[in-house]
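HOLO CASE FILE
Compound: magnesium ion
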Amino acid sequence: MLNVAIVAGGDSGEYGISMKSGKQVELNIDLEKYAPFLIEIKGKKWNYRIGRKCFPIDKNDFSLTIGHRKIIFDIVFNAIHGTPGENGKLQGYFEMLGIPFTSCDVTTSALTFNKNFCKQVVASYGINTARSLHLFREEKLSGAQILKELTLPFFVKPNNGGSSVGMSKVNQKSELNAALDMAFREDVEILVEEYIPGRELTCGVLRTKGKIVALPITEIIPKKEYFDFEAKYKKGMSDEIVPAHIPETTSEKCQEISKLLYLKLNCKGVVRFDYIFTGKKFYFLEVNTVPGLSAASIVPKMAQANGWSFTELITNMIEEELEVRS
Ligand SMILES: Nc1ncnc2c1ncn2[C@@H]1O[C@H](COP(=O)(O)OP(=O)(O)O)[C@@H](O)[C@H]1O
Ligand SMILES: [Mg+2]
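Model generated. Tokens follow.
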């Protein structure tokens, strides 16, 4: 029996979603193979709970002591979206301790969490990305200068964010300043990106039994103007169609790009690549290296469409990580 620490929570606006992802993993993990411990990580408080009792993690070796029993973890299942689970911080800690974990390594996590850096690397492999300006607060570029460089409408987003927090769509000039202020409240650096009209497609990828596998493509159809926070997390505010109603050649193309990116970005675990498909071209939007795993999330549906139960998906992820390490 292997001890699995499922880490969830974190310090971003995605805390609640992450707790749901973690609980769903705990509920579905194969109990014949694994002993799961759901560990909530929030700021400096890292705790395991049994009922009302709280057991702190010893950060020196990421162990847990319950009574006289000291539990050492064989592997960490990472279910923390946003900081510190998706940006390399926890990855660095686990790598220092030599504990295997189910998501991308420190470098890939840190690179991909930075939207600007990630877009540049992705573009270097010949994949389309929306034209954008990367700005720091201190640059104080005027609205007029931005409008000279890029064509409306825009998306203005914090560079190191997630869940559409602090981002907005700018349809006309008069909305630009408010959008810049809102994004700069979340981050010292932002992206002003040209809007790409098209369909939103997303592709889940993982490596299993040593082979990179792309899951069936999902189309996201938000009932809002775009896939904002409400559309993402409020029930019924978006339709997620798995497999997407698109021609097979389109779906194969999307999977091929995603598998290439998985390889070149040196990903591990399950990641989700998001695109806008214009009818001709795919524009890469971002990669989520710790995608949602709650009952309502996209990845479990993708796995199911691929003929895998959620339990099998979890087992595949754990076995692959342990296999690579052994
Ligand atoms: N350049 C763009 N063109 C069209 N839609 C976009 C663009 N950028 C973002 N969006 C929309 O906004 C959503 C959130 O943007 P994204 O960059 O993925 O930020 P987050 O990390 O907050 O999810 C996307 O899922 C998509 O619906
Ligand atoms: Mg996104």
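CASE NOTES: Residues 248-264 form the longest helix (17 residues). The first strand starts at residue 2 and ends at 9.
CLOSED: yes
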